[in-house]
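User: Here's a structure from my thesis project, written as structure tokens. My advisor, Dr. K., wants to see whether a designed sequence matches the one we expressed. Can you design one independently, without my sequence as a hint?
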């Protein structure tokens, strides 16, 4: 056998071994969901393994994965972060790790965990960036599913705890009050109601506590729907203005008392307040609104002397509406009538322009005294 023939056989053997190594490497990468890349910086040419093409949703070796092409395949929300990380590695020569999202041609979003290193020449100039990418989509989605399940479990547990507290602190207190009133024990009934209100307010404070370091902000108290008790309906049959919506009415009342606008989503409470104030020579209820938006509109239309304003309401809450009411009716004095304890909301209401903060649940006589103090 000649020396040339022997060299050819050795070369063929080396090629076969290299091809076998590549095949085994490609198979291992495929099983692991991992690909590798080797970017030659001066020529902007990038060698991707076959599996990396598959991870990106393309046929192996179907295009030249230049850096521009690579960036175009990254999720748009991740591109700036990934390019900044590469630039930092390019400038410092430090290895890098990252998790990025890519978008396949069919729109499927995949999560990759990538690492890499910068290779420099003898002069310290970066010439190559190489590394590996692992498809971790299944792991990310599984972790997200576990977190969502844990969150739902936590919410369900919190709801059960709240339901039990409602039963212990509110339902049973009201049940005791009803029994006392049925037995004509009015003082005991009022005592039960008063203590139940205090317990309910304490529960509200506990539930609202995680609202942030600044406490509740305008808009945080917007309700999905108006507060309504079950029938029977209103306490009086006083006629509403013809054609006026149920939750917002403007009345033209003759008299010399202070003109009052009621802004509260609880229609039953508005009925009680209207009856009490209309029996008082000093006050005339000229309008009612069931949310902050209607309250601002009626304040602009009616220019009342006094506005009784709730905080938690649909569409626009009281903290949002208060400065708008004062802007629409500069001479109006606003008194906030709220179910929240003073330490929870009073300071914010007064800072927003309210003249007084009154907690719901007190006597109507005390409320009228507070209004008298405001109007002088």
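Assistant: Designed independently from the structure alone:
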């Amino acid at each position: 056998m000649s020396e040339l023939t022997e060299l050819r056989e050795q070369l063929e053997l080396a090629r076969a071994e290299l091809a076998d190594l590549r095949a085994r490497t490609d198979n291992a990468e495929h099983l692991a969901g991992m690909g590798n890349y080797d970017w030659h910086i001066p020529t902007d040419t990038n060698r991707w393994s076959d599996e990396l093409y598959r991870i990106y949703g393309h046929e192996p070796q179907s295009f030249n994965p230049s850096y521009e092409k690579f960036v175009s395949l990254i999720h748009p929300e991740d591109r700036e972060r990934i390019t900044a990380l590469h630039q930092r590695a390019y400038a410092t020569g430090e290895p890098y790790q990252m998790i990025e999202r890519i978008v396949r041609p069919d729109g499927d979003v995949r999560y990759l965990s990538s690492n890499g290193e910068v290779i420099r020449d003898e002069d310290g100039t970066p010439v190559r960036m190489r590394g590996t990418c692992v498809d971790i989509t299944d792991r990310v989605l599984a972790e997200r599913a576990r977190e969502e399940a844990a969150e739902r479990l936590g919410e369900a547990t919190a709801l059960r705890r709240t339901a039990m507290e409602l039963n212990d602190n509110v339902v049973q207190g009201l049940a005791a009050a009803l029994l006392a009133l049925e037995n004509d024990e009015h003082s005991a009934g009022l005592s039960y109601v008063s203590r139940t209100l205090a317990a309910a307010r304490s529960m509200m404070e506990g539930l609202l506590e995680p609202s942030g370091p600044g406490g509740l902000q305008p808009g945080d108290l917007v309700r999905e729907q108006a507060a309504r008790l079950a029938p029977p309906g209103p306490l009086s049959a006083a006629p509403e203005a013809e054609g006026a919506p149920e939750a917002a009415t403007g009345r033209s009342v003759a008299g010399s008392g202070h003109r009052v606008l009621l802004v509260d989503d609880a229609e039953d409470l508005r009925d009680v307040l209207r009856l009490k104030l209309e029996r008082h020579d000093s006050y005339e209820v000229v309008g009612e609104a069931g949310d902050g938006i209607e309250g601002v509109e009626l304040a602009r239309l009616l220019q009342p002397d006094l506005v009784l304003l709730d905080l938690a309401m649909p569409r626009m809450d009281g903290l949002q509406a208060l400065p708008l009411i004062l802007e629409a009716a500069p001479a109006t004095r606003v008194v906030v009538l709220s179910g929240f304890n003073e330490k929870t909301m009073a300071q914010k209401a007064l800072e927003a322009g309210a003249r007084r903060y009154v907690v719901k649940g007190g006597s109507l006589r005390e409320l009228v005294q507070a209004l008298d103090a405001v109007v002088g």
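When you compare it with your expressed construct, this may help: The chain has eleven helices and 13 strands.
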